[in-house]
Design brief:
With 499 residues, the protein is of the alpha+beta class. The chain folds into four domains: 1-26; 32-138, Uridine Diphospho-n-acetylenolpyruvylglucosamine Reductase, domain 2 (2-Layer Sandwich); 145-255, Uridine Diphospho-n-acetylenolpyruvylglucosamine Reductase, domain 3; 259-463, Vanillyl-alcohol Oxidase, Chain A, domain 3 (3-Layer(aba) Sandwich), CATH 3.40.462. 29% of the residues lie in helices and 23% in strands. Strand 7 and strand 8 form a beta hairpin. The longest helix has 16 residues, at 3-18. The N and C termini lie far apart (58 Å).
Length: 499
């Protein structure tokens, strides 16, 4: 008997015997998936293809991470997205643990011309981080955050979640703009632009990017930075997942106290127009350290509709009361929850009730000032219903975000003051038709106030609308796409087609 094989087998058996279940052994040892049959899949062009089991076995053997097939353990968990309305079944799911695995997955997809989807946090509004019968590259096993306190930077692995970045950075009194829900994937949020509660103070997430490592469609690991592959670096900051899979982000961090002032004011729906007029004036005058949002809310179950204003003050706590006091005069305050709160706790505060975990649909667009005409149209067409949650409101922009030129990064809507969101969510399993119809009808009255939209909110725009949304940056983005991804391997995104 081969001595090395005997020793390896004996050690493996001893380890296995000491563990409570076989999956624990797999977590310690690299055990490639055994491929029993050929695999049916789909190509980029939508044609059916058969992947020989020997080729799939070779792919599995090349990975340090896992290759999951339908029916295997963890397959269903890996394929699922936050919105259960997207119920897709990839032919294969690769779970890389490092850049080498990512490159292997990209090479396999390219060589076999497979439809490929990339999943980080699974928040894709359009469900494009999974696919039917293609290859899903699931980055959930590729997470880490390393903070350099001297340089005030964070090195973040490509599959990490925003909460991991917030937690590690804030432990050292440092932050960067990082969304509003902690289980959002860093990759998806960042590459689309990256709004968050600190955006007006520190800029978009892309404004705090110093460099990235990316596996491009040719399977090469490249550094994208101002001094290396600068056009790729420019395109990645707002151009989404069009150019490859980012395996590492380097973010600039900023000093900030742990405790911020945050909360919400609730007013009666009958005062919605006056409150929204006040909101528009207040938001325009707010300092960069103040993030303020507002909107109208229709609760499921037939509860009373209401108008709300929410704030996050990340500046000097001694100045908070003078800034907040005028909001209490905007109308009759039915409830106020404003209080000091740990910033990391605030970032996690919406994790368990994120309405996207139900069936949901949204229309959105960037707007300028919230004035009386806009408020009138917004409220006159607002309609709550007991079988859905309806929210029509504003995510504030401006501040540091607007002090960057439209062509400095691929994100091209710097002049916007707000992102107007028309959002509806319903219980999973309900017929979505009536809810989607309502939001589309409401949006038809609001679209005239908007100029473009946030690509990360994209549900179902056509190719022409997506192209136009990049505005004057589109020709430059198209050139980068043609250089790095001429076959459009990475097309399940706000796509820039090279054709």
């Amino acid at each position: 008997m081969n001595r090395r094989h005997f020793i390896k087998s004996s050690v493996a058996a001893a380890v296995a015997a000491s563990l409570p279940a076989s999956h624990a052994l797999a977590s310690l040892l690299h055990i490639p998936t055994k491929i029993e049959t050929d695999i049916s899949a789909i190509t980029l062009q939508g044609a059916e293809v058969t992947l020989p089991k020997a080729a799939v076995q070779e792919f599995s053997d090349s990975l340090k991470g896992k290759l999951l097939l339908p029916g295997s353990a963890s397959y269903d968990d890996a394929r699922r997205l936050l919105n259960p309305g997207f119920d897709k079944h990839p032919a294969l799911i690769a779970q890389p643990t490092g850049a080498a695995d990512v490159a292997s997955a990209v090479n396999f997809a390219r060589d076999n011309e497979l439809l490929v989807a990339v999943k980080c946090g699974g928040h894709s509004a359009s469900g494009k981080s999974s696919c039917d019968n293609g290859l899903q590259i699931d980055l959930s096993r590729y997470r880490s955050v390393r903070v350099d306190t001297a340089a005030r930077t964070a090195r973040v692995a490509g599959g990490s979640l925003l909460g991991e970045l917030d937690h590690e950075a804030m432990a050292h009194g440092l932050v960067t703009t990082a969304g509003t829900v902690s289980h959002t994937g860093v990759g998806g949020l960042t590459l689309g632009g990256g709004f968050g509660r600190l955006g007006r103070r520190f800029g978009l997430t892309i404004d705090n990017l110093l460099e990235m490592d990316i596996v491009t469609p040719d399977g090469q690991l490249r550094r994208a930075a101002p001094d290396e592959n600068p056009e790729l670096f420019w395109a990645l900051r707002g151009g989404g997942g069009n150019f490859g899979i980012v395996t590492s982000f380097l973010f600039q961090l900023h000093p900030m106290q742990r405790e911020v002032i945050s909360g919400e004011f609730v007013f009666p729906i009958a005062q919605a127009k006056q409150v929204l007029r006040f909101f528009g004036e207040y938001a325009d005058a707010a300092p960069d350290e103040m993030d303020v949002n507002g909107g109208v809310f229709g609760a499921p179950g037939g509860g009373d509709s209401m108008v709300t204003m929410g704030i996050v003050w990340s500046g000097d706590a001694a100045k908070a009361e003078d800034l907040i006091a005028p909001i209490r005069k905007a109308g009759t305050v039915l409830n106020e929850t404003v209080k000091p709160i740990d910033y990391v706790a605030l970032q996690r505060s919406g994790d368990t009730d994120d309405p996207r975990a139900n069936g949901s649909y949204m229309k959105s667009g960037f707007i300028g000032k919230v004035d009386g005409e806009l408020a009138d149209d917004m409220i006159d067409n607002f309609e709550a219903a007991p079988n859905r949650m309806t929210w029509i409101g504003f995510q504030q922009s401006g501040g540091a975000i607007g002090r960057v030129a439209n062509d400095a990064t691929a994100f091209a809507h710097r002049e916007a003051k707000h992102n107007l969101l028309s959002f509806v969510a319903w219980k999973h399993g309900d017929d979505p038709a009536e809810h989607i119809r309502y939001i589309k009808e409401h949006w038809s009255n609001m679209q005239k106030y908007s100029t473009g939209f946030y690509h990360n909110d994209l549900f179902s725009e056509n190719q022409a609308a997506s192209n136009a949304n990049y505005r004057g940056n589109y020709p430059r983005l198209l050139a980068v796409k043609k250089q790095y991804d001429p076959t459009n391997l990475f097309r399940l995104n706000a796509n820039i087609s090279p054709a």
